[in-house]
Every structure is written in C-alpha cells, then in structure tokens.
Amino acid sequence: EPEVTQTPSHQVTQMGQEVILRCVPISNHLYFYWYRQILGQKVEFLVSFYNNEISEKSEIFDDQFSVERPDGSNFTLKIRSTKLEDSAMYFCASIDRANTEAFFGQGTRLTVV
Amino acid sequence: AQSVTQLGSHVSVSEGALVLLRCNYSSSVPPYLFWYVQYPNQGLQLLLKYTSAATLVKGINGFEAEFKKSETSFHLTKPSAHMSDAAEYFCAVLSNIGNEKLTFGTGTRLTIIP
C-alpha cells in the first residue's frame, strides 16, 4: 500500500529557532497538505499546495511558515522562528483526486522549549 | 464552504455494545466524507470513505457508516465494541470539485468499558 512518509518523527527545538519538517508524498498525487494538531485538540488545516504553488492557506499559516517542493519528491514545511505555541503534531497529507484517496503521514511531533 | 460537526467529544460504551459516533456535514456541493481513527501517539488512519457510490460504506475493523443526504449525516457505527476500538475518531469532508481542503471535525474520543 502506498504511504506518505514524514521525517523526523519527533523534533525538539529552542524557541526562536528555524525548523524544517519533511514529507515525501505519494509519487503520483498532485495535491499536498499540511495539518497541525495541538495535543488533545482537533486537526487544523494549515496549507494546501498544487502545481508547485500554495492554493489555500489558513489564518494560522502566517509569515513564519513557508512550504516548498524543492525536488519534485519532497514537500517541506518551514517554521522560521518557532514559538512555544507551535508545539504540536504536524501531519502531511497527499490526495489523489481521481480515486479520492487521502493519505496521511505518521506525523512529526514538534516540541518547542 | 464546508464544515463537519461531531456531536459528543467523548463517548463511552461497554465492550460488546453498539458503537455510534455522530457526524453531520455542511457542504455547498455533494461531498466526499471520511472517517479517520487515531490511536494514542499515532497518525491518522483511514477507516472508510464515501464517494457518491453506495450510501452504506464498510470500512476496516468492522466499522461502517451510512451517508444520509436528507439528514446531512455520516454516522459511524460498529455492532459490537472491542477494547481495541478505544481511540479518537475524526469525521472529515472533502469537496468533490476543485482543490478544496479536507476539513475535520473536532473528534470523538471513544472509551470502551470492560
């Protein structure tokens, strides 16, 4: 079965530092997403990405966030200057619209100290 | 715009009893609907999905859900709960046009009483 892979599984960073969360979506999918889940809370949409550009972003996705698909396989989320409230599980997803399959990675748990 | 409402943030059922987790959606176009399960400290696993074929959808682990357009509902059921079903369950909606995002409900934590 195809899968979305995310690295690292857990990252601890100091407040103010930059982090890059990495995702390898399923190769023939065209739509990619980042979601965030603060511990014990709902899964929140951050950003969607299609055709090498952002197609939609939430109000959470402010100037400290950016996404990139640098090499046609990886899909990265960069947080420029982390804050304590950025501590959460970050999920990458890739969607195959033709078959309506939405696959999620296992997530990266980001802890900002 | 699309949204999902999950009634009951916590549901407790006895082992062997019926599981019913409620989900109502709002969508301006016919939606695709999903149920995901999340075990502690793990990712999101797809349980089942509705994509405008059969209204009664069967998923993994004995779960099923019925799409009812008249009630804008997509409730998740399982006839007999098992201890291993204890988890967080999320209903989600995806528009079937364009590049709409997958929108999640707030989740329902299912506890199984031995």
Which structural class best describes the helix and strand composition of chain A? mainly beta
Shape of chain B: globular
Chain pair with largest interface = A-B, 22 and 22 residues
Beta-strand portion of chain A reads over 45%
What's the end-to-end separation of chain A, in Å? 37 Å
Number of helices of chain B: 0
Give a structural overview:
The complex is a heterodimer of chains A (113) and B (114). Chain A is an all-beta fold and 113 residues long. Chain A has no helices and eleven strands. Helix content of chain A is 0%, strand content 53%. Helix content of chain B is 0%, strand content 54%. In chain B, the strands form three sheets. In chain B, strands 2, 5, 6, 10, 11 and 12 form a six-stranded mixed sheet that branches. In chain B, strands 3-9-8-7 form a four-stranded antiparallel sheet, with no helix packed on it. The model of chain B has no long low-confidence stretch (mean pLDDT 91). Chain B has 114 residues and is mainly beta. Chain A binds chain B through residues 31, 33, 35, 41-45, 48, 50, 55-56, 91, 93, 95, 100, 102-107, and chain B through 32, 34, 36, 42-46, 49, 51, 90, 92, 94, 96, 99, 101-107.
Summarize the structure.
Chain A has 113 residues and is mainly beta.
Secondary-structure blueprint:
The complex is a heterodimer of chains A (113) and B (114).
Chain A: E1 5-7, E2 10-13, E3 19-24, E4 31-37, E5 43-50, E6 53-57, E7 65-68, E8 75-79, E9 88-96, E10 101-104, E11 108-112
Parallel strand pairs in A: 2-11
Antiparallel strand pairs in A: 1-3, 3-8, 4-5, 4-9, 5-6, 7-8, 9-10, 9-11
Chain B: E1 2-5, E2 10-14, E3 19-21, E4 24-27, E5 31-38, E6 45-50, E7 56-58, E8 64-68, E9 73-78, E10 87-95, E11 103-104, E12 108-113
Parallel strand pairs in B: 2-12
Antiparallel strand pairs in B: 1-4, 3-9, 5-6, 5-10, 7-8, 8-9, 10-11, 10-12
